[in-house]
Amino acid sequence: MYRSHNCGELRLTDTNKEVTLAGWVQKSRDKGFMIWVDLRDRYGITQLIFDEARTHETIMQQAKSLGREFVIQIKGSVIERESKNANIPTGEIEVLVNELTILNEAQLPPFTIEDETDGGEDLRMKYRYLDIRRNPVKNSLLFRHKVTQEVRNYLSNMDFCEVETPYLIKSTPEGARDFVVPSRMNPGQFYALPQSPQTFKQLLMVGGLDKYFQIVKCFRDEDLRADRQPEFTQIDCEMSFIEQEDILNVFEGLTRHLLKKIHDIDIAQFPRMTYDEAMRKYGNDKPDIRFGMVFGELNAVTQHKDFAVFNNAELVVGIAVPDAASYTRKQIDALIDWVKRPQVGALGMVYCKCELDGTFKSSVDKFYDQTDLAQWADATGAKAGDLIFVLSGPAYKTRTQLSALRMELANRLGLRKPDEFAPLWVMDFPLLEWDEETGRYHAMHHPFTSPKKEDMHLLDTDPGKVRANAYDLVLNGNEIGGGSIRIHDKETQSLMFKHLGFTPEQAQEQFGFLLNAFQYGAPPHGGLAFGLDRLTAILGGQETIRDFIAFPKNNAGRDVMIDAPAAIDNAQLDELNLALNIKG
Ligand code: ASP
């Protein structure tokens, strides 16, 4: 038996017990006649004591040789500590050691294994296994386990069946690039790693499984933005014989279950907002509704004067920044520069201070009088003491820019409180999205999403106006889940492919299996997928998903610990029939 107890469980009530413990040496303090060692494992830290007066000399000698992160096993008796440590659960006791075995020595770790470490990000990634020994990382992994366990509990209790779908598949277009795997046995042919199990879960519905879920890795070869991982995990779900309302209820229930189990928070009915409303009020299809600064449209109250910038704009829109009327010229200029950065792309920004005495002072006083500015305040909900920022230009672009500013200000003003949770559904997304680059429509969600029946007639005349039976679950300004009611008949699916620019032959070649399946009695079905990494991070009160992944990739998509991706040797390339395709 390696251990009778773990390092986190001994208490005063265990005094006089003979115990065996195993773990890592967190640190040791050598006072010559007395040595204390903090022994650490996943469960906590227990103080060991070696005392010249009570410990055999050879063991004293051994104890003196212990270095940080040595793996040891000890036997000893639990005694009450003289100076107690109220900060740790085992702080009232220590173990007087009478037997010590060094199980493994350790080199000096490249950074300190403490809650606050001196190791930089890169170093910690390279030695991730050491980083995992630190409480913050270890706790994040334990937290993730708790979230997945609660997900499994909730869904299993509702009769969802967990099914594994294959990783070596054929490419499914979901808007990103596929990772591909060459097939040795089929020269010149490739598998694709799934961007999601979308078509498979639909086929499980055709197979009559009724309720499916899977906690599953998905792969997308996207240019990496901060906090995106090329492989990530989804809680993927699908249900048959349901309407949109049923899905919203089940997964609102799941989210509520998680908030209750993890934070003991009760949240009533989640608000619902159409995509159009989200864009109009927040300039964003994943609005953070924990704070205000709701958009106020100002066309009606700005376009009656001689200010050409506003008069020529499709949209004039503003937000009221709470209690910011006291900002200095310098602070305001800095924010104007911020929106003019290429990442945001505004050409300029107008402001209006709502002074505490009820007057207004704007950067366009030449054009607008106090009555005009009072109307701006009305439209943006500004009160005395607030500062109104106004952007103008093409509607979509301007909304996006103002949204970026809104989020930036909220971050700076500390309005995005990590322990506050504000979920909502965003619904009625457009079915199609115009892609400037390719000059054609793309499915906004994916090609299997059903159009709203009442909008079907617009498919030929005004495709951009067709709304989809698609919904996203948004939490604190992040999309944590999204899904749709699916098309389940061959005709509509073929029509959809046609609108996405597929010839019937191309559709058949790529998706024949699905179109065929729809001919054998496909039930009405729909579903959604949650992003587990992000969901966990947000529930954990953080926004970096990397902290909740055991072995994440860095911003360049590399695993710096195992050094992947890496070249493979010629023999391997040969075997995969790739050798000739590689230049140089
Ligand atoms: N497969 C979709 C996605 O990955 C989710 C869904 O429609 O269920 O976003």
Automatic annotation (TrEMBL):
Pfam families, per the entry: GAD (PF02938), tRNA-synt_2 (PF00152), tRNA_anti-codon (PF01336)
Q: Where does ATP bind?
A: 220-222, 229, 479, 531-534
Q: Can you say where in the cell this protein is located?
A: Cytoplasm
Residues recorded as binding L-aspartate, renumbered to this chain, are: 174, 220, 445, 486
Question: Keywords assigned by UniProt?
Answer: Aminoacyl-tRNA synthetase, ATP-binding, Cytoplasm, Ligase, Nucleotide-binding, Protein biosynthesis
Give this protein's Gene Ontology molecular function annotations.
aspartate-tRNA ligase activity
Which catalytic reaction applies to this protein? tRNA(Asp) + L-aspartate + ATP = L-aspartyl-tRNA(Asp) + AMP + diphosphate
Which parts of the sequence are annotated with region: Aspartate?
Answer: 198-201
What EC number(s) are associated with this protein in UniProt?
Answer: 6.1.1.12
> What are the residue boundaries of the Aminoacyl-transfer RNA synthetases class-II family profile domain, all occurrences included?
144-552
Q: Which InterPro entries match?
A: Aa-tRNA-synt_II, aa-tRNA-synth_II, aa-tRNA-synth_II/BPL/LPL, Asp-tRNA-ligase_1, Asp-tRNA-ligase_1_N, Asp/Asn-tRNA-synth_IIb, AspRS_core, GAD-like_sf
Q: How does it assemble?
A: Homodimer.
Tell me the protein family, please: Belongs to the class-II aminoacyl-tRNA synthetase family. Type 1 subfamily.
The job of this chain, per UniProt, is described as: Catalyzes the attachment of L-aspartate to tRNA(Asp) in a two-step reaction: L-aspartate is first activated by ATP to form Asp-AMP and then transferred to the acceptor end of tRNA(Asp).
Please identify the protein, giving its name as recorded.
Answer: Aspartate--tRNA ligase
Query: Which source organism?
Result: Sphingobacterium micropteri
Taxonomic lineage of the native organism = Bacteria, Pseudomonadati, Bacteroidota, Sphingobacteriia, Sphingobacteriales
